[in-house]
Amino acid sequence: MYIVVTGAAGFIGSNIVKALNERGVKNIIAVDNLSKAEKFKNLVDCDIVDYIDKNDFIERIQAGHYDGEIDAILHEGACSDTMETDGRYMMENNYRYSMILLDWCQDQDVQFLYASSAATYGSTSVFKEERQHEGPLNVYGYSKFLFDQIVRQRLAKDPSAQIVGFRYFNVYGPRETHKGRMASVAFHNFNQFRADGKVKLFEGSHGYPDGGQQRDFVFVGDVAKVNLYFLDHPEKSGIFNLGSGRSQSFNDVAVATVNGCRKAKNEAPLTLEELRAQGLLEYITFPEALKGKYQAFTQGDLTKLRAAGYEAPMSTVEEGVAQYVEWLQQNV
């Protein structure tokens, strides 16, 4: 029997594959699209039994090739570019593909865990898994939102097998190098500091929801742990926020990143004020292209996740970014 991870060569998918390997699981079918070939690097230190292109996999599923051979599908594959404007592509890739997998899993009595997104919430200030708080700002968010609505309908009908959706907030951590401009703030901060000796943030990054940008940043290691918790508990279904449960500023990320780099050189950590005074942190104009399409404040309500029995603490920005910078120093 196999476990399937879609988007397996991507950011979250590859971290899940590695987490499965670390508990001794190697019977993993990795599904992805390697048109961006550099993603293969995310799987070099992972053990799998097969790699299948995402289009070939869906054809094999529909042809009955894997009937009775799969225990679970962890569906991480999607177009996550929030600036993508091709709605037809987004809906086919994110919504329709997910529907095919959901239908098959229900028919085969297979666990189905999938990536939703905090982008489903849009500009709300309340981040609870409830319809009245949802209003995506872009077609990416809508593709995730619509699939969540279908899942809610299935859950109301008492599905034959587990269905779990995770509304990821701002995930950061190892194995996201291939994402380019869509990589996390921590990744860009690290590269800016290494190249220019300073970090640049958008104006308004001063750490308060009424005057700047403040987000729920969640470490990818925590994301993988939550996925495996629900994989271990097939009796638990639902749509759950998956963030740190706290909101921190872009300044916090920048400070943690710079201090992580300084630690590697045995240099003392600096405060925000010291970074600014020394010209190691500066602010730039907010891009016009992002206005009206950008969540300025997010903070996941983890009440449902905790009620489902997941008790492990979530990393703070300071804790998670420190681990991430150490990994980047060794791998990038």
TrEMBL record:
NADP(+) binds at residues 11-12, 32-33, 39, 54, 76-80, 93, 144, 171, 179. Binds 1 NADP(+) per subunit. It comes from the Bacteria. It is an enzyme of class 5 (isomerase). Its EC number is 5.1.3.20. GO terms for biological process: carbohydrate metabolic process. It catalyses: ADP-D-glycero-beta-D-manno-heptose = ADP-L-glycero-beta-D-manno-heptose. Pathway: Nucleotide-sugar biosynthesis; ADP-L-glycero-beta-D-manno-heptose biosynthesis; ADP-L-glycero-beta-D-manno-heptose from D-glycero-beta-D-manno-heptose 7-phosphate: step 4/4. Signal peptide: none annotated. The keyword Isomerase applies. The active site is at Y140 (proton acceptor), K179 (proton acceptor). Its cofactor is NADP(+). Substrate binds at N170, R181, H188, F202, E203, G204, S205, R215, Y294. Keywords: Carbohydrate metabolism, Isomerase, NADP. Residues 3-243 form the NAD-dependent epimerase/dehydratase domain. The keyword NADP applies. GO terms for molecular function: ADP-glyceromanno-heptose 6-epimerase activity; NADP binding. Contains a large N-terminal NADP-binding domain, and a smaller C-terminal substrate-binding domain. Belongs to the NAD(P)-dependent epimerase/dehydratase family. HldD subfamily. Homopentamer. NCBIfam families: heptose_epim. Catalyzes the interconversion between ADP-D-glycero-beta-D-manno-heptose and ADP-L-glycero-beta-D-manno-heptose via an epimerization at carbon 6 of the heptose. This is ADP-L-glycero-D-manno-heptose-6-epimerase. It comes from Candidatus Dechloromonas phosphorivorans.
